[in-house]
């Protein structure tokens, strides 16, 4: 760096707050600071978990606050990292953002912490954690893993001759032919929304189902322009062309109004619908993610999953990880999480562990979701997640919705643009 | 002795201006210089910035999303300006005719301008939804729904209508103030000459309020380049990036892609483009108004 530029930068960087306090001169903290998702359900879980930990005397006390409300959790975490005011631990971290800040050396690799292996084995996460591993390191351990499944209105299905939830594209076509009316109502909500994150719940979920859970990004390359990808694109194209799905990205609760007969939902919607739309909820049946195959009994799907991270600058890493391992490894706390949030703890033994059996016996809809945890795949671990999914939105889903490309061309264009994005950032 | 007596007039003026200068130094000059430094640096929040010359410029110029954002400014302006201009002119003429409660009427229109962008964006999002009240009425009456959110052109029109609603009252008051300054004698003379209304409008009224019109023109250009909240909340930049604006691209580049130096360069280019367009418009349309 040129001396003049360096001096100028240094002066402004100091003023901008880029310099952090010297760890050696700072006081050693007396407690572990934890940030949790700003929603009532998760907050109520952490309130109990932290109180139990602090009462047990097993380690350094923990104090928690919700992630400060800004644009998003990621904005708040980023601001705190830049200002040097980050906590020791944060929950509610989406995998793409964890990879981004791990790449900027702000996260502690959890896989290097003592007790990590015992936690993974004890929580039955050996299979699940593979999808959270980057270059041999795990920077975020998933707290929950919510499979995405399709909700159908059983009253509509029955009226149009369906005894069970549609499982294949052909089933959906058949239902749509009977139920859909131009610009009035539709068979199925194909696109989950307009924003980049909505691709998790439409194209990526359909692709996982069609490809039996194969990745769409592998070894730094886009790999979805194949037979499975083409089947998905053709399905979406047919639905749009026939007018069997709405072009609007954001219809308001289309299942409730009967605008559609089916739409993707996660387990977090069970409690919400029971509370807000009890009449609709009485008629909801859950079906698997759609494919073109009739023989598959358990179809792969997308897992909406968020994890917990430990920041690199924490001065109490060992104590903080001990708390993480205690919370995630404790079966009773996992049950409490399930009860408070309705979201599936990321573990493979949900249906075999006796601790959870009473819960699933009294919550049959949640049990259906638990059944899919092992075949639910999280998003590709990539620091360019946003650009990748924006390219999918623009070149693929948007193009099919507007009828500007054939499925094959849309798929090829999306893959080509993503290839370019990945190449630039390599 | 009073404080003012201790200083000469220029000194006293300088003292009074100091608070403003200090404010500007902290909240304008400092961020601006930091922005300039970032635009020619390589920095990702946590490391030390290093000089990178024009690298950020080349990266930004190769970014298709940034160009789409700039093109969308032109598309937005092409829809927004006529709506806002005609709307505010109509408002100004209408306000002239109001005899009682003029301040109340003006305030009602101005309320839109000071309302929370987030709040009214959410309201308009519901209104424009395919199952929203506007489309439900259209479908009930005419059997047709307007694809406000799914058609690229209708989506931009929806954003332009929302922003126009916000600014029509404000711009209207600016034009109204201009109308108040036009001497009545000129209209009286025109009436004696039997000058038709449209000729009076184009030959007297509009030329006489040129300063106010230019002011509104400049404001609409600035608004077109700085749209964020409405597009971000109503359409999210879609469909097909048709409502993606430079401000959204800058925000996502800095805080989602974690590339603040690229975002800094983008903001400089956007500022330069808006300044250039304003200069061109002023050269083309600004006239000095002289009463002989």
What's the structural blueprint in terms of helices and strands?
The complex is a heterodimer of chains A (426) and B (292).
Chain A: H1 3-16, E1 32-36, H2 40-56, E2 62-66, H3 73-83, E3 89-94, H4 95-103, H5 116-122, E4 133-134, E5 137-138, E6 140-147, E7 149-153, H6 154-159, H7 169-179, E8 186-188, H8 203-211, E9 217-218, E10 221-222, H9 227-241, H10 254-257, E11 260-265, H11 268-276, H12 278-281, E12 284-287, E13 301-310, H13 317-329, H14 331-341, H15 357-362, H16 364-371, E14 376-377, H17 385-401, H18 407-424
Parallel strand pairs in A: 1-2, 1-3, 8-11, 13-14
Antiparallel strand pairs in A: 3-13, 4-5, 6-13, 7-11, 7-12, 9-10
Helix pairs in contact in A: 2-14, 5-13, 8-9, 9-17, 9-18, 17-18
Chain B: H1 3-6, H2 9-39, E1 41-42, E2 50-51, H3 55-61, H4 64-97, H5 102-114, H6 117-128, H7 133-142, H8 152-181, H9 184-192, H10 197-208, H11 210-226, H12 229-234, H13 246-255, H14 260-285
Antiparallel strand pairs in B: 1-2
For the structure shown, list the relevant keywords.
heterodimer; A: 426 residues; D-Maltodextrin-Binding Protein, domain 2; 2 domains; 6-stranded mixed beta sheet; B: 292 residues; mainly alpha; MetI-like fold; two-stranded antiparallel ribbon; 14 helices; 76% helix
């Amino acid at each position: 760096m040129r001396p003049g530029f360096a001096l100028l930068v240094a002066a402004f960087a100091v003023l901008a707050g880029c310099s952090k306090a010297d760890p050696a001169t700072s006081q050693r903290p007396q407690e572990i600071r934890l940030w949790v998702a700003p929603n009532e359900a998760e907050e109520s879980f952490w309130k109990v978990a932290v109180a139990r930990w602090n009462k047990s005397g097993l380690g350094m006390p923990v104090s928690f606050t919700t992630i400060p409300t800004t644009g998003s959790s990621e904005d708040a975490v980023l601001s705190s990292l830049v200002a040097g005011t980050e906590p020791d631990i944060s929950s509610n971290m989406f995998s793409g953002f964890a990879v981004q800040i791990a790449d900027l050396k702000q996260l502690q690799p959890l896989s290097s912490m003592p007790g990590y292996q015992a936690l993974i084995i004890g929580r039955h996460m050996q299979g699940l954690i593979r999808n959270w591993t980057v270059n041999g390191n795990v920077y975020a351990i998933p707290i929950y893993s919510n499979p995405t499944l399709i909700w159908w209105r059983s009253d509509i299905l029955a009226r149009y001759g369906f005894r069970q939830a549609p499982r294949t594209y052909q089933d959906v076509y058949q239902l749509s032919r009977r139920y859909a009316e131009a610009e009035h109502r539709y068979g199925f909500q194909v696109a989950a929304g307009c924003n980049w994150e909505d691709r998790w719940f439409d194209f990526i979920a359909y692709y996982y189902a069609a490809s039996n859970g194969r990745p769409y990004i592998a070894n730094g390359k886009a790999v979805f322009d194949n037979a499975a990808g083409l089947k998905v694109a053709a399905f979406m194209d047919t639905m749009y062309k026939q007018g069997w799905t709405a072009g609007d990205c954001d219809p308001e609760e289309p299942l409730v109004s009967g605008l559609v007969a089916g739409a993707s939902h996660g387990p977090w919607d069970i409690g919400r619908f029971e509370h807000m739309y009890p009449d609709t909820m009485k008629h909801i049946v859950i079906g698997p993610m759609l494919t073109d195959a009739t023989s598959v009994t358990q179809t792969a799907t997308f897992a909406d999953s968020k994890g917990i991270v430990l920041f690199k600058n924490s001065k109490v890493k060992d104590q903080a990880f001990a708390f993480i391992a205690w919370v995630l490894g404790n079966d009773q706390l996992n049950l409490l999480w399930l009860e408070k949030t309705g979201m599936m703890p990321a573990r493979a033994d949900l249906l075999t562990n006796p601790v959870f059996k009473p819960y699933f016996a009294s919550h049959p809809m949640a049990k259906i979701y638990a059944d899919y945890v092992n075949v639910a795949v999280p998003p590709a671990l990539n620091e360019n997640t946003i650009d990748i999914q924006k390219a999918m939105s623009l070149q693929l889903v948007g193009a099919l919705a507007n009828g500007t490309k054939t499925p094959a061309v849309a798929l090829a264009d999306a893959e080509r643009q993503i290839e370019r994005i990945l190449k630039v950032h390599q | 002795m009073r404080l003012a007596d201790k200083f000469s007039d220029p000194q006293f003026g300088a003292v009074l201006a100091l608070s403003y200068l200090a404010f500007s130094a902290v909240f304008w000059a400092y961020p601006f210089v930091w922005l300039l430094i970032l635009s020619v640096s390589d920095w990702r929040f946590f490391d030390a910035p290093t000089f990178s010359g024009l690298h950020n410029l080349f990266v930004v110029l190769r970014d298709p999303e940034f160009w789409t954002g700039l093109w969308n400014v032109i598309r937005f302006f092409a829809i927004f300006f006529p709506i806002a201009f005609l709307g505010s002119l109509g408002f100004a003429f209408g306000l002239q005719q109001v005899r009682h409660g003029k301040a109340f009427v003006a305030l009602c229109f101005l309320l839109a301008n000071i309302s929370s962008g987030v709040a009214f964006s959410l309201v308009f999002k519901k209104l424009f939804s395919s199952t929203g009240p506007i489309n439900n009425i259209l479908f009930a009456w005419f059997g047709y729904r307007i694809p406000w959110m799914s058609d690229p052109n209708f989506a931009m029109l929806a954003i332009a209508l929302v922003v126009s609603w916000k600014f029509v009252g404000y711009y209207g008051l600016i034009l109204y103030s201009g109308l108040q300054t036009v001497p009545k004698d000129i209209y009286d003379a025109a009436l004696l000459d039997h000058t038709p209304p449209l000729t009076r409008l184009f030959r007297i009224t509009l030329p006489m309020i040129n300063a106010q019109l230019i002011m509104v023109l400049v404001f609409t250009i600035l608004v077109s380049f700085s749209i964020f909240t409405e597009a971000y909340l109503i359409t999210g930049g879609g469909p097909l990036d048709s409502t993606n604006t430079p401000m959204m691209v800058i925000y996502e580049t800095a805080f989602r892609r974690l590339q603040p130096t690229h975002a800094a360069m983008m903001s400089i280019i956007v500022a330069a483009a808006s300044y250039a367009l304003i200069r061109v418009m002023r050269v083309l349309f600004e006239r000095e108004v002289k009463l002989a």
